[in-house]
């Protein structure tokens, strides 16, 4: 995990590449709940059921996060060198990085959680899984509401995650490894 905030490499007065133009647009024109997935600006409007799933995870990991000095939120994650700029449903980061005004990068997280929706399920299952691994997110928890399963991906590499636990049906307990070292109840997701 990288310990310093990702420096904002974009001089917005000199938007000189498609990547920079897209990221400028997302940060200044598209609003707080939009992301870029493989070069396409995608507005996000999660349902209550979607938010409920993310909140159930946040509640369970909350005590352990506080003990470790961590924070959770859905702040922006930049994937430099690509046309991707994500807003995960939940990301856990060290408290000092949670005060960052700009985007972080996936290797600065300890856990990224994505909850599928009918409109973006394949993106979360394939594209984001591959990209989070390439950019070093140590743990990726996929809550697949359409399939009613949870899958934990770990040990990221350039070609993807090398360890996959699941998919497990909702209701099965999933073990989050260190630094969390806790069991997640997936009932009610």
Rounded mean pLDDT score? 88
Give the fraction of residues assigned to helices: 10-25%
Tell me the CATH superfamily: tt1808, chain A
Structural class: alpha+beta
Q: What oligomeric state do these chains adopt?
A: single chain
Rg, Cα atoms, Å: 16 Å
In total, how many domains does the architecture comprise? 1
Uncertain runs are 3-12
Q: Treating each run of at least 4 consecutive H or I residues as one helix, how many helices?
A: 3
Strand-residue proportion: 25-35%
Helix/strand order = HEEHEEEEEHEEEEE
Shape: globular
CATH topology: tt1808, chain A
Tell me the total number of β-strands. 12
**Level-1 CATH class name:** Alpha Beta
- Order of strands across the widest beta sheet? 3-6-7-8-9-10
Largest sheet: 6 strands, mixed
The span between the termini is 28 Å
- Supply the CATH architecture: Alpha-Beta Complex
Provide a concise account of the structure shown.
The protein is an alpha+beta fold. It has a single domain (47-185), classed as tt1808, chain A (Alpha-Beta Complex), CATH 3.90.1570.
Description:
By secondary structure, the protein is of the alpha+beta class. The protein has a single domain (about 45-185), classed as tt1808, chain A (Alpha-Beta Complex), CATH 3.90.1570. The chain has three helices and twelve strands. It has helices at about 20-30, 50-70, 120-135; strands spanning about 35, 40-45, 70-75, 75-80, 85, 90-95, 110-115, 140-145, 150-155, 160-170, 175, 180-185. The protein has a six-stranded mixed β-sheet with strand order 3-6-7-8-9-10. Strands 1-2 form a two-stranded antiparallel sheet. The protein has a two-stranded antiparallel sheet with strand order 4-5. The chain is globular.
